[in-house]
Structure formats: C-alpha cells, structure tokens
Amino acid sequence: QVRLVESGGGLVQPGGSLRLSCAGSGIAFSIYGGRWYRQAPGKQRELVANIWSTGNTKYADSVKGRFSISRDNAKNMVYLQMNSLKPEDTAVYYCNVAVPPNYDYWGQGTQVTVSS
Known about the structure:
The protein has 116 residues and is mainly beta. 3% of the residues lie in helices and 53% in strands. The protein is built from one helix and eleven strands, in the order βββαββββββββ. It has one helix at residues 29-32, and strands at 3-7, 10-12, 18-25, 34-39, 46-51, 57-59, 67-72, 77-82, 91-99, 103-106, 110-114. Strand 7 and strand 8 (77-82) form a beta hairpin.
C-alpha cells in the first residue's frame, strides 16, 4: 500500500524559511521521482517543483531561485526547502508521485501560511 505523509508546514513571516518533508512508503522516489504541488484558497492546484528519478529538477517560475527540491533515497524522503517566503506562497502543499501510465498518489497535505 502506497502512503505519502507530508510534514513541516506552519506559520512563517514574510522572508522566512520552511522545509517540507514527504515520507514515502510502498513506493520508491528513486524510481518514480517526486513532486510538490500547492493549492491556495479559490485557486487550482499547481505544480511547484519536480524531481525526476535521474535527480534532475524543475520549478514553477513563481518559486525559481527561492525553493529547492531534494531527495534522500536511503530514507525514501522528498524535501522542499522554501526560502524568502512571500504571502502568495500561502497554500496547502501536497506531495505527489506519478506512476505511469496515468496513476497519481497524493499525501494529505500540509498548510503553509506566510503572514506577519
């Protein structure tokens, strides 16, 4: 059974940092890669960062240079380091693994609130 569990969200002031973690079980990030999505109130869920099995990464333009996705294969974890946070980064952040041809696994999400 596949399970993804996010942690690390919280309330942070603008300009601050947070590190989100995603623990995977029943599926290997080293094989399928991992993604972070976010969904703000009233908005569609958007892809924030992607790390492939090769280790290559890609970011949404809105977070480029501020966020960094990484992976620990031994622990089967994916991380999202978020720096220089802005109020518009406020959202529920979800960990995701896509398994070909067309199946997605999701975590329960973790709330990130950026506010003074």
